[in-house]
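Lab meeting prep.
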Amino acid sequence: MWLVVRCTATALVLTSPGWIGADDATLTRLKVEGRPAWRALEESATSRSWTGRVTDEVQKPGEAKVPGRYHNIEVAVRRRPDRLAFEAHRKELPDKQSAAHSAIVFNPTYSFIATKPQLTTKNWSLSNLAVSEAEAVRMRDGVELEHGWLIAPHRFYAGVRMDEWFDQPFVKLLHADTVREDDRELVRATFDFTLPADPNRTALQGEAVYDPGRGWAMLRRVISRPKASDEAKIQYAASEPSPLAWERVTVTSKLPSRELIKTFTIESISQDPTPDESYTLPAYGLPEIGAPRDDQAGGQTPPTPPPSWRWGWIGLAAFSVVGLCLAATAVYRKRRTA
């Protein structure tokens, strides 16, 4: 809970340790202006759907860029406050282990993964089914980690809401200031964060740049760690002032031996509500839980396949901007559901 007090330019009382360290003037803007704007942005984002195309390129020192393993994939995301559907459709198969089409879907009752192994396969097959809350949480954690920049482009880290990021015990805000870029006044925040379950307590550095003129939308986010860094740039439609008018998300991962450039070009964004039925097994031509099959007289839960999906369709894991934060998500979810 936030403590509301009177403050001057030199004194500001806060209850969250994550806010300690920034200069008072900009800190006040982050808290008074930014936090409500982020809360409103989150509420709006949870009921939108979008589609786009992912490209993946690799560049080694002194060499030209070449297409990566996950190049030219069509992505579709549907969201509701308590539902999520993420689909990936390949145009070509890089190897025999990759699925041509995949869908991971969450609803309040169960979660599942469906796939089509070949480009020409017509029917979906059930690859994984989670009916317990613990299984669903693990599955959702994995999706947020591995595809966060696709399913939540507005967040620094997909598993944590924008308005709650600086409240986390593993985040320490170091500095916040005002910068000017392209004749716009922006707010930049830099912070340290660690992984609670990391035995080495590896220190990570983060930077986020927000645009108050666009509802405090995030324009850039950077994660730096020893010998590597990830930078994501979010471009917005010039004709639309909304903080959710994404046009393109570009992630550049710099590694010692190569550079990876991943781009998500958003082709459409819809505010139309999606029906509950689109987040169920029958939406993919699969029998509903408890529905009778053709060869059975009574209803039966569809069998749960072996958990081999992690090594199949989750090839898009290479796209994660913050894949190194798995332990952080686990701690966050435990505390939020406690």
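Slide two material, second protein:
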Amino acid sequence: MLHKPVWTGIDIGHHSVKAVVLKQNKGRLALLGYAEVALSPAEHAGASPGGGSYQNSLSEPILLSALRKIRMLLPKRAVRAVLSLPDSEVVQQVLTLEPRWGQDIGTELAKILADTLSMAPEALSLDYSPSLASEQGAAEDRLRFQVVAAKTTVVEARARSVREAGFEPVIMELQARALLWLLEYCQRQAITAMGTNPALVCIGADEVDLAAGFAHSQPLHRTFEQNGDCQMPPPALIRQLQHYQVLSPLTGLWLTGRPVSDADLILWQQACGLPVAYLTSELLFPTLSRTTTVAVPADTAWARAAALAVRGGLSC
């Protein structure tokens, strides 16, 4: 008997590692599992005997230990994993090429980007997609690409830890961009309380992710530090929303992550000038009746891990 695909989104944060497991079920994605392993202050500071520093303030031994604990808490079928990299580990640029017969686009883009970064092309892991020539004066006879790249050592280190913990890393996504898949899933499931073109904000312990315009040619995805009053939107986030409104008028704002009160929702609405509502995992994902009830704690930033699992579910 063939099983329906199961996807695990793994969010590696500063204070914990979270995993959300989703399964295709009657045209929707159902919640099959959730697990979280908290990191001690020493661990998220990167203190590990014999372990070198690792991206996002985690050493490889600490990350591997947390991932192994996560694996023990999840269903056996939760093997295929979608991971993310924080924006700080990634370079994003629009590059152009002169079209030539039989050219290897990936190799040529890697050479151009590596030259600008004073690196060897083989030291970069790169992905690209066609970019619209929307800028004035752009040459019509040149190919334009949106390029995303990270150091190969960084990508391999993260994938290696996940693999050694018993998962199969399949997709690597950008941390904030993953939330665009959650917005697309809301649209597919007609979850439109915030209109047809909402923004999504995930409130974490010390940073805030923003995503908007999932169907636009120039979607918005950005991570902001959360300083001062954690219940108020960072000023930089407000400015970014205002700028994006000119490009793609927004119809509302979903908040996820740390719980907010009704008074906080009003503050966000006044600050951002948009209708605001709180998005819960229960609204997005039903639980499977034949399994033990799966609960996602209300006080956790579950959306990153869920968005990564959605990324896998919508790609198959």
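Talking points for slide two:
The longest strand covers residues 28-38.
The longest helix spans residues 60-73.
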